[in-house]
Each structure stands twice: as structure tokens, then as C-alpha cells.
Amino acid sequence: MHCKSCLIEGLEYEIRFEGNHNQSVIPNIINHLNRRKIDVKVQDNLLFIKEMGVNELIDFCRDHMQLALVYFRLPNQEWKPLSTIQETLDMQWIDEVIKKKQLTCYFQPIVDERENIFAYEILSRFVKEDGTLIYPDVIFEAARKRGRLYALDRLCRLTAVKSAAKIKDKKVFINFIPTSIYSPEFCLQSTTRLANTLGINPSQLCFEVVETERVDDVNHLKEILSYYKEKGFEYALDDVGEGYNTIEMIEDITPHYMKLDMQFVQGVAVDFNKQQVAKSMLRKSIELGSIPLAEGIESKEDFEWLKREGYKLFQGYLFGKPTPEIDDVI
Asked: What is the pTM of this model?
């Protein structure tokens, strides 16, 4: 059983008409669309239309309505001016990426103080049909704008769990976007079920919270992490640095691992301000019983400084770049 957020079905747009003139023209636009065999539903000053009919609607609004007073939104999203709708229409390609599962997993090592491999982070990489890569920031932004974020995040999680089955004796870090999950019990059961089917020990998997700056509802995040913990998984907080929201979140969710944001890692050996942030996070991790991890390390000097201060785990190009073959980094 899947919820609508999992399925890549045709989108239905909700259109809102403001202003006396625009609302008086609503019957005309309904007749116009019906003549062209485009189904619409109307409720007060709202119109619901499938994506295939949106361009016809736009053309009518440009000719007969005050366009600045017409708005649209997708399910569970905010209202936007109709004049900006083309950006959402242009991102239909994300639907095909998800439907055809056009992604592959890359592996990046996480090492201890002696540079022995402690774990791997599994990173999703997206591939066009011609074989070229799509950058993650591009694809996640497209998914966000089209309301496909949960479907994409779910695909990434399940594919990562399948890839984790290749790694028998190391911990595996898997990213997830908490803002895409509305119900832990429902949305995450496929993840736990797949891990059980593959015979993966739950304690081997560590789910890593990404985009922490977007998390406004800390209680919702706590529900998600409580679900993971109940199932035997561990969890990490990514991109930890300075800022009230991040520190408050850390204290509320007490992660198993805390990853120092790379902006405070690169150059830390010679930058006093970065050193203060790194030390502050280290103290907080010790206070909460979390394991401190520094990511984005590219120089030996930064590695040695962080190691002397007391960091336990390290990740970055100094130890290995992400690669599609696990044998290349073992």
C-alpha cells in the first residue's frame, strides 16, 4: 500500500482567483476548458485542474484576467503567483527520474583516528538516460518544487538500504530528509521492512538527518528518530555548526553521531574562529554522549588538529572520494 506522496501520478493544480473581475470570469473559463475536453472542478473561487490542461488555462488567464491576481499551488505546498508556474512545468523530468529509478549509489569512507575504515556513507547520484550525472542539489530542488520530495527521498533510502547489504562488517550512513516524512510509522515502514528482508542488522544502519536548517518542527523530527531508535537503528545529525536552532535541536534529539559542518573543518588548523566552533561542538557531543565526526577533510593539517582536540571519526577527500564501487575504497 502506498500513499499518494509515493506515487508519481499526474499532478492536480489548485488555482485561486482574486479580485471581482477575475471571479466574475470563472464561468467563462470553465466553459472554455470544457469545450476543449479539459476536466475542471470548481469550489467558490478555486479551480482544480490536471497538469495537461494548465497551459490552456494560462493562455486564457493572460488574455481575459488580471494575471497578477491569479495564484496556484500543488498539494501540501504554498500559494505562488500563476506567472511563475512555468518553472514547475519545466521540471516534469524529475517524474521520469523517479519512475525509472535513474540513480546509483556511491560509497565514501568514514575513518577513525588511525585512518582505519569505520563506516561508509552511501550517497545517491542521479543519472540521465544518456549516462550523464544530475547534481543532487538540482534534482532535490526540482522534486521539492513539484511535490515529489517524499517519493525521491523514499527511492534514495530504499536503494541505499539495498546497497548496504553489500557491506557486511562496517556501519553504513544513509541520508534522509525529515521534512519529506509526514508519518514515521507509515512512511518509514518500507525501509525497516526491506532491512529485515535483506537480513541487515538494524544497528549497522545509521540514518543521517540532512538539511537541518530546514527543520522547523523539532517534535516531528523527534518522532521520526524515536521510530528509528525503536527499530534498532542509529541516527546522526549532519552539518552541525553554530546557530541557536541547531544547538537547540541537538539537545532535544541527542544524536548518536554529530557531524561538524565542513565549513568549520576546512582550514580549521589555522582559523581561530573555526576552532572555536569545532571545540564548542566537541564539548556538546561529549556532554550528550554523541560521537563527534568531522566531514569535508581535505588536508592533513586539519585532520591532525581535529584529532588532537578529540574528534573520533573523519570523512573527506583526504581519505577517499565517493566511488560507485565499494571494492575501490575497501
From this structure: 0.85
Reading the block at residue 140, the C-alpha cell is 532535490
Compute the chain's Rg from CA coordinates: 23
Give the torsion through C-alpha atoms of 242, 222, 175, 311, to 10 deg. 50
One-letter amino acid at 213 equals E
Give the Cα separation of 119 and 110 in Å (integer).
Answer: 5
The CA distance from 161 to 155, in Å, is 10
* Mean of pLDDT values over 186-194: 81
pLDDT band at 219 (very low <50, low <70, confident <90, very high): confident
Which cell goes with 129?
Answer: 538516460
C-alpha 8 chain-centroid distance? 17
Give yes or no for a contact between 73 and 46, defined as CB atoms under 8 angstroms apart. Answer: no
Segments in the chain forming alpha helices (H): 20-24, 26-35, 54-64, 85-89, 93-99, 136-145, 149-164, 184-187, 189-197, 218-230, 244-253, 272-288, 300-309
Ordered structural domains, the chain, with CATH:
12-85 (3.30.70), 93-328 (3.20.20.450)
